[in-house]
Design a protein that fits this description.
By secondary structure, this protein is mainly alpha-helical. It has 7 helices and 4 strands, in the order αααββααβααβ. The protein has one domain. Helix 3 crosses helix 4 and helix 4 crosses helix 6. This is RDD family protein.
Length: 195
């Protein structure tokens, strides 16, 4: 008897139903909205402006042109003149780009940590995230259909962020798997069931 057959028999014996993929997608979008709301309330307006300026600065890097009589671009923020020594301008651009990249990377790190912590805390204490609670599904251990352990919750939360949220490849197996399991479900030995 394969592992999948054993899971199927155990699910039947316990009278449990696998959560449909549509409910899981709905729960995921609810969770993403909640994380964005939490993030927007925890980051001050000054920090949000700093991130916006950094992003705009990075977008403007590709608008540099060599100033000549033939090409005039009104959207250019900085023009390099025909002088062979533009080192001061280029150093300013490098410095601005580095500062902008630093701000954006710190912001992305905060987003990642918040996402992982959100999933971990709710999964560990409630067996489901807020989105999963709303759509009435929960995550259980595949062996005993109980709430996942601390280690399993952390592993699943980190894998969900890396494979699911950032790379968007973790969700694809749910569409073809017999039990609608994602990569991070398989790797953390969990399964999502309907309440």
């Amino acid at each position: 008897m394969s592992n999948d057959d054993k899971i199927e028999n155990d699910l039947y014996r316990e009278n449990l139903k696998i959560a449909p993929v549509v409910l899981r997608i709905g729960a995921y979008f609810i969770d993403m909205i909640l994380v964005v709301l939490i993030l927007s309330f925890t980051i001050s307006q000054e920090q949000q402006d700093k991130v916006a300026r950094a992003y705009e600065s990075l977008l403007n890097l590709n608008k540099l042109e060599l100033d000549s009589n033939n090409s005039q671009n009104l959207t250019t923020t900085r023009n390099l003149d025909s002088n062979p020594d533009n080192s001061k301008i280029l150093n300013d651009i490098r410095k601005e780009a580095k500062e902008a990249i630093d701000v954006v990377l710190i912001y992305l790190l905060v987003c990642a940590l918040l996402n992982i912590l959100y999933n971990f805390i709710f999964l560990y204490y409630y067996g489901a995230s807020l989105g999963q609670i709303i759509v009435k599904i929960k995550v259980v251990n595949v062996y005993n259909f109980d709430k996942p352990s601390l280690h399993t919750c952390m592993k699943r939360s980190v894998l969900k962020y890396i494979l699911g949220t950032s790379l968007l490849i973790g969700f694809f197996p749910a569409f073809v798997d017999r039990f609608n399991r994602t990569f991070y479900d398989r790797m953390s030995k969990t399964i999502v069931i309907s309440n």
